[in-house]
Sequence to fold (244 residues):
Amino acid sequence: MKLLVCNDYQEMSKKAAALIAAQVKLFPESILGLATGSTPIGTYDELIRLYNTGEIDFSEIETVNLDEYVGLGPDHEQSYRHFMNEQLFNHINLDPEMTHVPNGLAANPEEEAENYEMMVECLGGIDLQVLGLGPNGHIGFNEPDSFFTPGTHVVDLSKETIDANSRFFSSRAEVPHQAITLGVKQIMQAGKVILLVSGEKKAKALKAAVTGPVTPDLPASILQLHPDCTVFADEAACEWIYDD
Ligand code: GLP
Fold:
């Protein structure tokens, strides 16, 4: 695991986008694993800029998103499908049919999780996975637990995650209590992993993920075992490095 401390959010976003752009240029048929949340927005903006200046072409790229809220469809402003369309997909030349996000409106979410898992396997897995970090150390929606869940699954969101994500909804009561998420197996099988971390609210989880034991209590800690994981973090998230 490499930790790259960037001066600020903008530098973090540019550096992460440069690595994704290199993947797209070198391997134009890559499967990109994508994340939502506020942290990757700057990275997606930079990818859009690189597309607009003709530096990258997404026409043969296929994308797989990490997760989706159970109960939210593409028309809901807080669904992750809506987020991805607005923040990235609508602004670049990705074929909409080559973008995958779990269906939050599936009648049987468990079956949807199984189908999503199979779909990713049929694609041959993920070449480069982008991740954000939950304040409780979650990746995707793999919440702290007493064991790691390998496969794609339906998860009950923790109180801390519901609290953290309530800022995007008009009230806490509107935050869904469940989500469909890729498990740690497909994340760990990705060829490359990029973890984006910004702000002092993430400092504690980042320190534990990077320096603590590998434990399902802090799901991001498993990335210590990934052979090619780069953490792009801004200084605010890395203050603990300079302590003592
Ligand atoms: C959600 C997503 C995660 C994301 C996390 C952090 O819970 N499921 O994939 O990493 O939010 O979001 P933010 O970047 O807004 O702090």
Observations:
- DSSP finds seven helices and ten strands in the chain.
- Helices lie at 9-26, 41-52, 80-87, 109-122, 159-165, 184-189, 203-211.
- The chain has a mean pLDDT of 97.
